[in-house]
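Weekly sync, protein design subgroup
Attendees: M.S., D.O., the rotation student, P.L. (late)

Item 1: inverse folding check
M.S. brought a backbone from last month's batch and wanted to see whether the design step gives back something sensible before we order anything. D.O. pointed out we never logged the input encoding, so this time it goes straight into the notes. Structure tokens as presented (430 positions):
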């Protein structure tokens, strides 16, 4: 994926009709055949007549407008519920035309909630800002939204007295919104410096001691580090050289954090930095290479009894990959399947970008990979592929065949295991 942002003219499809936007089940129903999510609800939408689709779409848009109106309700609980409902709708549907018409109203609601709301409401508003930018894509519309919200994000993030949940959410949202909507590279660097002012507070001191931070503050620093790493993927070569000189000697200190999320974020950021450095200088190595690899190897085989089993399992998996990246320049590729297509995550740059988008769209990521022109542009997938009814039917048939095959294989395995169990010797008791 190129490091420079690519502006694109948006031409995303229209809205998707559904029942209730408040539920995940209804959010998965597609009423526009050209933006299918290939779920069982597709067949329902196809069987419905054109008039039925129009009616469902109008009904859904009406409900969305009611939800938007609820974002300024007197009740904080109602406002938060409305913000979360909008997030669900935007994460699971392409709503470009509708969102484009309503973007200033939605932006005003986000701004009001960020300024006057409390923790959970601010968190929901910050996340909604990202989804709004994802829907609008990289262009003048998202730039206008971000121009209005960026000062508020930075104010909350810089205010030590602000709600910690709000600061955590703003750290994550500011990073992705900057990736999507920032048009000035100097402003990107300025935002990265703000993130640095946060996560460097978890760096080891000059005497080697580690600062004491609360778990919530550690999460804030982790979010800031991950957003900073995300913006590294669009940084220039000269900026990356500066970052390497300034931060690579100190980032390994974060590997000793008590917080597993910070350790993992630091490890993945180090792997990303090595990848970026070797793009510039193929023979790049750190001055502290041996010490760094020892730390990474210890984390990849961590047997510390004081750590939770799930944390150790997750950590070992990540750090095995990080160690390979640092020692060998290797990356464990991963294939993401969506519809009839497949995308390969084949670099730490691509992984950091994919993880950032997935954090906001969640289970809707595959749908956005299929239908969102902006996200497809980011991952160089080309225009959305239109799927006709015959192809969809063939896909469903192949899925049924796979299900039957898997069922038969499971039955065969069960028989084989039972046969093996029958041959075991019953030792009994002594």
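Designed sequence read out in the meeting:
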């Amino acid at each position: 994926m190129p490091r420079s942002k690519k502006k694109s003219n948006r031409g995303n499809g229209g809205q998707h009709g559904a029942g209730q936007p408040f539920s995940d089940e209804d959010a998965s129903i597609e009423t526009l055949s050209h933006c299918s999510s290939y779920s069982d609800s597709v067949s329902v939408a196809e069987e419905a007549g054109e008039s039925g689709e129009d009616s469902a779409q109008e009904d859904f848009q009406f409900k969305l407008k009611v939800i938007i109106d609820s974002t300024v309700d007197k009740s904080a609980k109602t406002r938060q519920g409305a913000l979360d409902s909008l997030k669900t709708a935007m994460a699971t549907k392409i709503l470009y035309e509708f969102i484009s018409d309503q973007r200033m109203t939605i932006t005003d609601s986000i701004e009001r909630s960020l300024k006057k709301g409390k923790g959970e409401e601010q968190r929901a508003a910050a996340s909604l800002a990202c989804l709004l930018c994802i829907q609008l894509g990289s262009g003048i519309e998202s730039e206008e939204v971000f121009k209005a919200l960026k000062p508020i994000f930075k104010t909350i993030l810089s205010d030590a007295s602000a709600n910690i949940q709000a600061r955590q959410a703003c750290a994550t949202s500011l990073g992705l919104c900057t990736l999507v909507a920032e048009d000035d590279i100097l402003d990107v660097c300025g935002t990265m410096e703000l993130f640095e002012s946060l996560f460097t507070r978890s760096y080891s001191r000059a005497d080697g001691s580690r600062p004491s931070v609360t778990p919530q503050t550690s999460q804030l620093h982790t979010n800031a580090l991950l957003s900073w790493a995300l913006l590294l993927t669009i940084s220039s070569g000269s900026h990356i050289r500066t970052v390497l000189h300034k931060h690579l000697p100190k980032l390994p200190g974060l590997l000793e954090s008590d917080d597993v999320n910070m350790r993992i974020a630091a490890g993945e950021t180090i792997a990303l930095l090595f990848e970026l450095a070797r793009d510039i200088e193929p023979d790049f190595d750190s001055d502290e290479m041996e010490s760094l690899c020892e730390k990474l190897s210890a984390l990849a085989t961590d047997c510390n009894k004081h750590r939770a089993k799930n944390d150790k399992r997750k950590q070992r998996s990540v750090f095995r990959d990080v160690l390979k990246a640092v020692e060998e320049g290797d990356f464990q590729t991963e294939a993401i399947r969506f519809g009839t297509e497949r995308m390969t995550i084949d670099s730490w740059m691509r992984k950091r970008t994919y993880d950032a988008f997935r954090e906001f769209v969640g289970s809707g990521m595959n749908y956005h990979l299929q239908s969102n022109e902006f996200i497809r542009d980011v991952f160089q997938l080309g225009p959305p592929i239109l799927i006709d009814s015959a192809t969809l039917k063939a896909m469903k048939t192949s899925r049924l065949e796979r299900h039957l095959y898997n069922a038969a294989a499971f039955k065969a395995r069960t028989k084989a295991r039972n046969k093996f169990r029958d041959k075991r010797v019953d030792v009994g008791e002594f």
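Discussion: Confidence is low (pLDDT under 50) at residues 2-46, 423-430. Residues 192 and 228 are 6 Å apart (CA to CA).
Action: P.L. to compare against the previous round before Friday.
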